[in-house]
Amino acid sequence: MARLAAATLVSGLVAAVVLTGAGRATADDGTPQNQSGATATINGLKTYGEAVVHGDSGDEQVAAGLFEMSVDGGGTLQTYCVDLHNPTQRDARYHETAWSGTSLGANKSAGKIRWILQNSYPQVNDLAALARKAGVGSLTEQDAAAGTQVAIWRYSDGADVDAVDPQAEKLADYLEKSARGQNEPQASLTLTPPAVSGRPGGLLGPVTVHTNARTVTVIPPSDAALSGVRITDKTGKPVSTAEDGSELYFKVPDDAAGGTSHASSSGGGSAELTVQASTTVPVGRAFTSESRSQTQILAGSSESTVAASANATWAEQGAVPALSAQTDCAKSAVDLTAANTGDKPFTFELMSTEYTIPARTSRTVTIPLQEDQAYDFTITGPNGFERRFTGVLDCKTQGSDAGLTTQTLSEPSPASVGGTTGGTVNLAATGGDSATGVITGVAIGLVVIGGAVLVILRQRENQQTD
Q: Would you place residue 134 in the very low, low, confident or very high pLDDT band (cuts 50, 70, 90)?
């Protein structure tokens, strides 16, 4: 009983620290990864049918089909779920990411999922032709969406799942058997590296543009007029547009100062550039949310606004760090890349461990995390340097024996407006904010219960001693 009480107390404390941390990580403005490409808000399940998931605890009927997202700056995305056992949070914000930052990175069948996306609805919108290939009489949009989602779940989650409608089930079987591996699509827009550093009085970079757009607009630092920092090509000529493969540089004057450049009295500072374009996002790109909403994969895109950013840090002397971070699901970790172009070592502490990056070197620090663990850390350095990174490690899909965690609603949901089939819709009831309060209350309750049990045990020990 004593061990049980202690365990209860410790569990309560861990829940209070880790789980409420997830709420903070999603609410504050941090840098989850090197965000680039499209950022969007999920509107809900729009075109769907019904499916049955067979699990150890029995069968459960779920909605299966296409989600819709609204892109920041304009545009619409259509996506399928690749994370069956995780709930979809209403109005969750998503960002485009590489497969390596999701469960797809370690999934040998991820390329087959992309084949399914390219060879089914909505990429193939001739439903009569799709029906002939699948060997079915006819397909409605709802059948096509449900069948496609079921086939994807069989590869993304290893799920034992069937479509309720016979036509949709035949389509799912056809897609599953016909799928062939394909390569991961490139990002719609990204900058590499996302962080550079150096001495003022010259060019810092290069930062290379990677995009499927014909041209991108280069947006200079917001305080360029005050700081004097310019975005140029390798000759030092200012640029306002770029294209795939273009190399951009920060031209930092000797006396760069003021505004958001965060200049210090010792001659150090930082600035950020943004590139933006309008393009279609490649089919098969992954989308993740920092609010623990199920991972999505892109099935279709209108002309949409995409953006990417990079920052530069400079100093006249000492260490000059450049930091960036990205999720590495193969390691169940976040990889922090730290480059130091200065003449002195850059030392920082993270999770009770001290790291030192020697002068003129670059290293990647791997920060192991548990699945679903929230992280929120800030790294500081000389000359007012500060970088904050936040997020939640979401790298695995749960097995079928864990049961579905989505909540079945018995009445129409605002997130499912536009669906044309009957039945219930499997969506989470709310976003992360309300859940945070519940989690915190549970954690506090565990602490109180644990403390009460300890007090009772001590009283019994005293009575026996007397």
A: very high
Whole-number Å distance between alpha carbons of 321 and 204? 13
In sequence order, which ranges of 179-261 are alpha helices (DSSP H)? 224-227
Cα–Cα distance, 284 to 298 (Å, whole number): 5
Chain CA centroid to CA 330, Å:
15
pLDDT recorded at residue 391:
83
- In whole angstroms, give the CA distance from residue 317 to residue 268: 8
Q: Mean of the pLDDT values across residues 30-47?
A: 81
Position 387: which residue type? R
Say how far apart CA 371 and CA 122 lie, in whole Å. Answer: 33
Query: How far is it, in rounded angstroms, from Cα 70 to Cα 163?
Result: 28
How many residues would you count in the chain? 466
Query: Whole-model pTM above 0.85?
Result: no
Contacts of 266 (CB under 8 A, 6+ apart): 315, 316, 317, 318, 382, 383
What span, in angstroms and rounded, lies between the C-alpha atoms of 445 and 287?
35
Give SS3 for 405.
coil
Lowest-confidence segment of 217-231, 358-372, 439-453 by average pLDDT:
439-453
pLDDT in tens, 345-402: 999 988 888 999 999 999 999 999 998 888 898 998 888 888 898 888 888 886 434 4
Of the candidates 219, 306, 340, the one whose C-alpha atom is nearest the C-alpha of residue 271 is 219
Distance of CA 400 to the CA centre of its chain: 23
Lookup: tokens for 270: 């930082």
SS3 223: coil
pLDDT at 262 over 60: no
- Count CA atoms closer than 13 A to 238's CA, side-chain side: 9
Best CA proximity match to 255, nearest among 312, 319, 318, 201: 201
The residue assigned the tokens 């880790």 is: 18
Instruction: List the structure tokens of 242.
Output: 């770029």
Q: Would you give the distance in Å from CA 81 to the centre of its chain?
A: 14
